[in-house]
Amino acid sequence: MDKMTLNDVDVEGKNVLMRVDFNVPIENRKIEDDNRIKQALPSINHVIEQGGKLILMSHLGRPGGEVDKTLSLKPVAEHLRTLVDATVYFAEDCIGEEASSVIDQAEAGEIVLLENVRFHPGEKGNDESFCKKLSDHAELFCNDAFGSSHRAHASVAGVTRYLQPAVSGFLLEKEIRYLSGSVNNPDRPFVAILGGAKVSDKIDVIENLLEKVDTIIVGGGMTYTFYKAKELPVGDSLVEEEKVGLASELMEKADEKNVTFVLPMDSVIAKEFKNEAEHKVVEEDGIEDDWMAVDIGPQSSIAFGNIIKNAQTVAWNGPMGVFEMPNFADGTNAVAQALAEATEMGATTIIGGGDSASAIKQAGLEDAVSHVSTGGGASLMFLEGKELPGVVALTDK
Ligand SMILES: Nc1ncnc2c1ncn2[C@@H]1O[C@H](COP(=O)(O)OP(=O)(O)O)[C@@H](O)[C@H]1O
Ligand SMILES: O=C(OP(=O)(O)O)[C@H](O)COP(=O)(O)O
Ligand SMILES: [Mg+2]
User: Fold this and answer.
1) For 44, what's the count of Cα atoms within 13 Å in the CB-facing half-sphere?
2) In a domain, 368, yes or no
3) Most buried by CB count within 10 Å: which residue of 7, 266, 312, 397?
4) Is 60 among the annotated ligand-binding positions?
């Protein structure tokens, strides 16, 4: 990477403002998967061991620019205390008096975690005054939030307008190095698998992916916008109405470009969005009114698995179903298993995304694939061949 990293700066005695991606799954104040926190520890420990005062900031969920206490980072501060050998303070706001007084209280070698930056509309809006207020906390900026680096938001990119040098953390550097090496010149066939729930964000990347890959498999919550475009019944399944037209165009473009485009041929549908709900397997034209699709079906798992096992490079983002509910995790587990088998046979397999990383861990296969990335949207943007705003904003070497 041609950007400065933490190794290029002296942090001793300095306030270091570090953007991390602590957007982790939390249930009843308990952190369900702390992978993203652990992955940031090399940068965190480096700063405190070198005698810097570390000010961490992150988002959690999508509170929409308003305070939402259910999306507080306080449980993350509590968890971080169990992972580091330093005092961790929590500031109830990321700017203003509250933040300043907690930061003043902390000493060199200690850590302050600021409250969710998305409680302020200026974060997503990348507003000048909000960027300025964040930048006033420190003398140096570090981005280690690979999973958020596709967002041109204040705490990821905007803050660098006022705070230089702006350097890469070790996780960001590692992620970019791995992805550059594996997907810039991929062995073929190159297969991309897209699923998950962030349909409106991630459907947009497909157009550019058509230039890069041989096959695109769509599963998970991404499926039913395409089903709607094919005029198949979708019941109460996740559909992004505004993207139905785009879904049709993408299927046509895939055809023109000779990219194989694969959708599930069956789904598991459920009466309610809960694990114990009544559920059954139906064919692609069988989704009934008042039912919702919650997983790909068994035929799809086999078909997807066969494509994956014939690939030389596989990039997967987004679970195939609501894997957090054990009854709807089969499709995701089958795809994870196929990735593991492809890896065993010599393929390069990359799985990315906060939730996808949790899913592969849940399947016990995180060591059986080539690389588990902390970013879903971010790794897709990289795969598209675009520059990530959170990387572009950093200081050149
Ligand atoms: N058919 C579906 N309907 C609703 N949600 C789904 C469906 N399939 C997968 N999901 C959800 O998608 C979420 C993850 O999506 P996303 O954040 O885009 O993936 P990642 O974090 O891996 O990038 C999971 O919480 C999962 O429950
Ligand atoms: O979880 C994240 O991305 P992912 O679900 O694509 O892995 C990142 O924290 C970005 O979150 P956002 O999609 O709300 O900007
Ligand atoms: Mg996610």
Assistant:
1) 26
2) yes
3) 266
4) yes
Can you list the residues of the chain whose pLDDT is less than 70? Answer: none
- From 171, 206, 230, the end of a domain falls on 171
Q: Is 161 annotated in the active site? A: no
Distance (Å, whole) CA 323 – CA 356: 9
What is the pLDDT at residue 357? 95
Specify if 397 maps to a domain. Answer: no
* One domain, residues 159 and 294: no
Quick one: 264 and 241 in the same domain?
Answer: yes
Do 211 and 345 fall into the same domain?
yes
**CA-CA distance, 115 to 58, in Å (whole number)?**
8
If you search the block for the tokens 């950093």, which residue do you land on?
394
Residue range(s) defining the domain that contains residue 58: 6-171
Ion ligand 3 — residues with CB under 5 Å?
A: 354-355
Q: Which ligand 2 atom lies nearest to the CA of residue 145?
A: 9
Give CA torsion, residues 294, 204, 317, 298, to 10 deg: 40
Cβ of 33: how many Cβ atoms within 10 Å?
Answer: 17
Looking at the CA of residue 21, tell me the nearest atom of ligand 2.
Answer: 9
User: What is the pTM assigned to this prediction?
Assistant: 0.96
Note the Cα 346 to chain centre separation in Å: 26
> Within this chain, do residues 16 and 146 fall inside the same structural domain, yes or no?
yes
Distance 246 CA to ligand 3 centre (A): 22
As a whole number of angstroms, the distance between CA 13 and CA 381 comes to 36
293 shares a domain with 272:
yes
User: In testing the pocket of ligand 2, which one of 198, 201, 204, 374 has its CB within 8 Å of the most ligand atoms?
Assistant: 198
**Predicted complex: ipTM over 0.95:** yes
Among residues 3, 14, 19, 36, the one annotated as catalytic is 36
- Whether residues 119 and 213 share a domain: the answer is no
**Structural domains counted in the chain:** 2
pLDDT of residue 184: 86
Q: Flag whether 355 is marked binding.
A: yes
Compute the radius of gyration of the chain from its Cα atoms.
21
Looking up tokens 């981005």 gives 143
**Residue 341 CB contacts under 8 Å (≥ 6 apart), including other chains:** 305, 308, 309
Is residue 263 domain-resident?
yes
Active site residue 352: no
